[in-house]
Amino acid sequence: MKKMTLPQASRLTSPNPVTIVCTQKGDGSTNLATVSWWTCLSYNPDMVAFAMAKTSYSGERVRETGKVVLTIPGASLAEAALGCGSTTGRDTDKASQFGVELTSLEGSEIQIPVHSRVAIQCALKEYHEAGDHYLYICTVEQVCGDLAEEALFAWNGYSKLAPAKQ
After folding, report:
1. C-alpha pair distances (Å), 36 with each of 1, 65, 75, 91
2. Is 37 among the domain residues?
3. Residue 166 placed within a domain
4. How many domains does the chain contain in total?
């Protein structure tokens, strides 16, 4: 074995689960940001966590509103999810820019992509500094799913988004 950096090692652990973090902007529209680090923390009570760069506009929205919906994007959203992960929503309507059709999620003011395999509606419990990121710990309010959608995963870091079966 040879020494390597953590980013190099993360490419060797592919595929990784991908989520589109959906938040509500100040004008009521939905912002979309792609992250590949999220996990279930607890099943009693239901809790999840995800990490976002400290500079992330979506993270700012989660901290301000206390609400977020994590969605597992369907395979048809691969290109859009890459775009949503590399563009700020501060001054951009990512849904329009990347052609993501949104729909309402019962019980939430935050819209989600139509082509989502899973939607996890959450309330922010707490967040913690983790180097250049914040770790967001959330309580789950509801979970919805669509078995007809095939989930996306991150391959080789963020270089490719595709279903797990290649």
Report:
1. 26, 22, 15, 23
2. yes
3. no
4. 1
Backbone phi, psi, residue 65, to 5°: -95, -25
The predicted structure's pLDDT at residue 162: 82
What is the biggest distance separating any 2 CA atoms in the chain, rounded to whole angstroms?
Answer: 52
| Cα–Cα distance for residue pair 125/63, rounded to 1 Å | 10
* Domain coverage including residue 110: 6-157
Residue 162 lies in a domain: no
pTM above the 0.85 mark? yes
3-state secondary structure of 117: strand
> Which H or E run contains 83?
helix 78-84
Whole-angstrom CA distances from 53 to 58, 77, 129, 136 are 9, 22, 10, 11
- The pLDDT tens digits for 103-126 are 999 999 999 999 999 999 999 999
Decide if 87 contacts 57 (C-beta within 8 A). no
Question: CATH number, domain at 147?
Answer: 2.30.110.10
